[in-house]
Amino acid sequence: MEPKRDLIHDYITSMTQRLEQWVREQRRLASELETLGKKMEGTDDRLTLLLSAQAMLAYIERTLKDFESWLNNPMITAVMPLEMLKKLEAMLRAVAVQFINTDIEHTSEYRDLLNKMAQGDVPDILKLYFQQRVPQQQQAQQRDEERRDRGLPRIY
Q1: Residues 98-107: contacts with CB under 8 Å, at least 24 apart
Q2: For residue 46, which of 129, 123, 130 has the smallest C-alpha distance?
Q3: CB of 72 within 8 A of CB of 64?
Q4: What is the pLDDT of residue 146?
């Protein structure tokens, strides 16, 4: 028994409306992020920049999960033309390569910063951290050795 055309039409109409709403919301969000980006260009506040970067990753993560859910829905992908899938795969590959290149660039830049620090230009905050941490580690090692000498298990 073939489904009534009205049922299929209602489904398509409903889905189209939801997708239109989704696209509007994504455009609004993209616009807000671009506006935020312009504000971030003018800030030197490290915490604000860090929180903004973390928020960008959260937006990427949310969109990735939604996109994955979209592509896992057979009601969507079953009717998607091959050319549309080819175009999507190519676009997502380009985004993946760009994202990986961003990671490589950032990680390499940070590695270079650490190499510079290793040559003696260590920030005061790292010096302070290790001044506090080393005595604590030494005390913990000493306690562990004493416990081991008495046959007691190590406490984590």
Answers
A1: 99/60
A2: 123
A3: no
A4: 72
Cβ–Cβ under 8 Å, residues 70 and 80: no
User: How many whole angstroms separate alpha carbon 152 and alpha carbon 119?
Assistant: 42
User: 21-68: per-residue pLDDT in tens?
Assistant: 999 999 999 999 999 999 999 999 999 999 999 999 999 999 999 999
Show the DSSP H helices in the chain as ranges: 5-41, 46-71, 74-77, 82-118, 124-149
In the block, residue with structure tokens 């033309």: 81
Contacts with 85 (C-beta within 8 Å, 6 or more apart), sequence order: 77
pTM over 0.85? The answer is no
Domain spans in the chain, listed from the N-terminal domain onward: 1-80
Residue 83 is encoded by which pair of tokens? 């050319």
Residue that the structure tokens 């913990």 belong to: 140
Residue type for position 132? Q
Query: Any residues with CB less than 8 A from the CB of 63 and at least 6 apart, and which?
Result: 26
Return the structure tokens found at 117: 């620090």
Q: Which DSSP letter does residue 80 get? A: S
